[in-house]
């Protein structure tokens, strides 16, 4: 079984995906981490983020063992990831890795921007998570402060709006809701409320009541 979770930056999709995977004992892949790893490789090399040859080479060279590195979580790397992820050859280089991950038994939950539209269009369940930009900015700011990073909420909000626009307006695999994705508005839900709503969607689909 494949569960595809897409949504904009800081919508809470990562937490939901992790919790759904734990609930169903499925594998979980935060696909944003892959683009972040490519971005970090370029930043460390001092390379131009729009250098498609270098970015595609970094994507082909990725080591999944490094995906847990907390340095990938920073706002700077996230912003750079939004740039490199718009490069078609980067996305092409990462496609098969994600599809192979998704095919693992007994099931997988993948979260990102294009899981339901491009990576796993045949996913059994698709959830598109949204939340108000102000709510997302507040959450991201608190997370950054908890990691000991300096964070200004107004700047985080501006960054989120810029990322939303870049991720949604790009030509290749833009952020968009798949036609058959269930919408989950996470603006006014706490984590447990969001998890319950996501499980309810999965269970409704499993029970064959996908219109619910
Ligand atoms: O979800 P995140 O903030 O970790 O993602 C970082 C960037 O990576 C995001 O701004 C766009 C890109 N990304 C993507 O293009 N496709 C995905 N499936 C996941 C992330």
Task: Give an overview of the whole structure.
This protein is of the alpha/beta class and 212 residues long. It has a single domain (2-203), classed as 3-Layer(aba) Sandwich (Rossmann fold), CATH 3.40.50. Helices cover 53% and strands 11% of the residues. The protein contains nine helices and five strands. The chain has helices at residues 13-24, 32-45, 52-60, 75-84, 88-102, 115-119, 133-146, 153-169, 191-206, and strands spanning 2-6, 27-30, 108-112, 125-130, 182-185. Strands 2-3-1-4-5 form a five-stranded parallel β-sheet, with helices on both faces. The protein is globular and about 50 Å long. The two termini are 19 Å apart. 41% of the residues are buried. The model has no long low-confidence stretch (mean pLDDT 94). Bound molecules: 2'-deoxycytidine-5'-monophosphate.
Write the layout of secondary structure elements.
Elements: E1 2-6, H1 13-24, E2 27-30, H2 32-45, H3 52-60, H4 75-84, H5 88-102, E3 108-112, H6 115-119, E4 125-130, H7 133-146, H8 153-169, E5 182-185, H9 191-206
Parallel strand pairs: 1-3, 1-4, 2-3, 4-5
Helix pairs in contact: 1-9, 2-3, 2-4, 3-5, 4-8, 7-8
The protein binds 2'-deoxycytidine-5'-monophosphate.
The site of 2'-deoxycytidine-5'-monophosphate (DC) has 14 residues, from α2, α4 and α8.
Briefly characterize the structure.
This protein is α/β, with parallel strands linked by helices. Helix content is 53%, strand content 11%. It is built from 9 helices and 5 strands.
